[in-house]
Amino acid sequence: MFGAADFWLFTMPETFTVPDSVAAERLDRWLAGALGISRSQAERLIDNGAVTLNGKLPRKAGDQVVPRDTVAVDYSAVRSPGAATADKPPEADRRDLVRVVFETADYVVVDKPSGLAAHPPENVADRLAIETSATLSGWVLSRYPETWGVGEYANRPGMPHRLDKDASGLMVIARRQGMFSALKRQFKERTVEKHYYALAHGAIEADTGTIDFPLDRGPDGRMVARPRIESVTLKNVASLQPGKAALTEFTVLKRFVNFTFLEVRIHSGRTHQIRVHFFAYNHPLVGDPLYFNKKLRRDKDKELGRIFLHAHSLAFADLSGERAAYESRLPAELQDFLTGLPA
Of 267, 268, 262, which is closest to residue 281 (Cα–Cα)? Predict the structure, then answer.
């Protein structure tokens, strides 16, 4: 049995237009009122690069907003605890850490580093702005210019899926529209296999398990993991209770003192699915800057400086119908972190 509480947190990007009734006002003060958060929280979003003003990063939290300005907030840009440390390169340099795992004329599989956003906010649609952005999209366009126009959104060239900024691991990028359409169909039909390594807080007793809380959105735009109220499957959840069906399977690989190392497979691709599900399961992921319990001791989260979530396995069908499978090793910083934990 899982807990029966709602877990509301910011997830999806939001865009606001400053109304005509607002006189010139500080960005942080106006944003705090628009989002219903404290001014210090608004400042943190701005300082973390999660906020754009008319398509550009503001110089400071005290920048002025005026009527009809456009303010966009991308919560995936919020850094993990301790991420802004002197021994880590700036985000623009993290593009150099992208590793090509395999490429064909139709697609390229890459290993995305932690700290690099998959794409800029949706209101950034200019090709040069995207190509020069400190994102995977910028890296893709600069290295594979033919991906411009491939896909559904300008800011996500060739991307049929995403990976959270602070997560690392495998992503597939389509170089041609035909491959993009084939991948999108496979993601929709849930035939793409995605496996992750994750480290959760606490001791998970079951060796294997399934989390099937539907994921929903509240009236204020925040996400909620709905508790199961009766037997739910991916086929009948829509008729039983609100929320989009989401299925996460896990296998315990090793137990440490106060932590559990897992392999996770998702059968659906909801926003922050693994993070929300394990938070709802009362075992939030180590290093998660959004989904955590306030009473939880997070010394180790700050020590790690990123979320412990790595997409290590990806499999899909190429245009010939052949199954293609790729693997990525656990990054050195995650492996070293595990090595330092008492078993």
Answer: 262
Helices (H), 199-295: 237-240, 273-280
- The amino acid at residue 231 is S
Q: Is the pTM of this model over 0.85?
A: no
- Taking residues 207-215, what's their average pLDDT? 85
Among 314, 336, 338, residue whose Cα is nearest residue 169: 314
Q: Using the predicted structure, report yes or no on whether residue 219 has a pLDDT greater than 70.
A: no
Return all residues near 50 (Cβ < 8 A) that are at least 6 apart. Answer: 73, 74, 75, 76, 77, 78
Residue 83 scores a pLDDT above 60: no
Q: Domains plus CATH for the chain?
A: 14-77 (3.10.290.10), 91-212+247-339 (3.30.2350.10)
Active site residue 164: yes
Separation of alpha carbons 332 and 123, rounded Å = 35
Residue 211 tokens, joined? 């989390």
Cβ 215 vs Cβ 275: under 8 Å: no
243-272 tens-digit pLDDT: 577 789 999 999 999 999 999 999 877 778
Give the integer Cα–Cα distance in Å for 26 and 178: 46
Decide: residue 253, CB within 10 A, 0-12 exposed, 13-18 middle, 19+ buried.
middle
Residue 288 has pLDDT above 70, yes or no: yes
Residue 172 corresponds to which tokens in the numbers above? 């597939």
Length of the chain equals 343
Cβ neighbours around 301 below 10 Å, total: 23
Give 175-201 pLDDT, tens digit per residue.
999 999 999 999 999 999 999 999 999
- Pick the catalytic residue from 74, 164, 212, 288: 164
Do 157 and 147 contact (CB within 8 A), yes or no?
yes
Please, what sign has the CA dihedral across residues 236, 240, 244, 248? negative
CA 136 vs CA 5, 84, 139, 155, 159: distances in Å: 36, 19, 5, 10, 10
